Amino acid sequence: MHATERERLIIEAMGPSGFVSYRDLESRLAASPATIRRDLTRLEEEGVIHRVRGGAKLTERHGGKPENAARLAGTPFSQSITEHLAQKQAIGRAGAQLCQHGEGIMIDGGTTTLQMCPHIGGLDLSVLTNSLHIANALLPQAGTQILLPSGTLFREQNIILAPAGEESMPRFHAPKLFMGAAAVGPQGVMQQDVILVAAERRLIDRAEQVILLVDSSKFNSSSGAIVCGLDEVDIVVTDDGVQPPALAMLEKAGTKVIVARA
């Protein structure tokens, strides 16, 4: 494949989010990692993209999002919290049962991960979270230590995120990361915004075990920017509406599945 064609495919892969991960590029392009890096270097020198941690994003003048646009793509938290609530509550309860007394964990912001909070009181956990909703839910738990990163507050999601490529996390390593997703498919775990992808990659890098909490509707879509492959996910906790093809997909990836019943 000619370099010009690869560059066209790279830009096309960024789609509406304006971001593409290295993993996604390797799966899309019939090229070596070294060749892909050279393609990205040329595009960056031409001012088309910025290379960031975990991938690349379009510059603003080529359709990328402004750095100061404190707004995330996707469904607002206030709307998402009401969708599939019974399933999310069951998933959150099952997720909390995976926590051990006194350990440190990370909980990524989301309406499903939020449902863990009522069930971890009394475990004396140290919790790193980027979500003000989760921090607020944990405040009444006297034995729970809460850590927050620095960054920009995105009000619609009530989440604190740093721009892609910027380090903002406390020095924290955890046995477990609990995270959600906008969609899950054969390509991997997906989100709808480049900043979410970069932030979740930073969390994954600090975790020994990645635990995905997603209701079964998330398997009905497979569009978005790839956060990680299914082979990077250790456990998926979902509800009993999950369909056999989704279970087969997870089994093929070697991912353990826990089905929570509402």
Automatic annotation (TrEMBL):
PROSITE patterns: HTH_DEOR_1, HTH_DEOR_2. The keyword Oxidoreductase does not apply. This is DeoR family transcriptional regulator. GO terms for molecular function: DNA binding; DNA-binding transcription factor activity. Coiled coil: none annotated. The keyword Transcription applies. The lineage of its organism: Bacteria, Pseudomonadati, Pseudomonadota, Alphaproteobacteria, Sphingomonadales. Residues 3-58 form the HTH deoR-type domain. InterPro entries: Carb_Metab_HTH_regulators, DeoR-like_C, DeoR_HTH, NagB/RpiA_transferase-like, Tscrpt_reg_HTH_DeoR_CS, WH-like_DNA-bd_sf, WH_DNA-bd_sf. PANTHER family: AGA OPERON TRANSCRIPTIONAL REPRESSOR-RELATED, HTH-TYPE TRANSCRIPTIONAL REGULATOR SRLR-RELATED. Keywords: DNA-binding, Transcription, Transcription regulation.
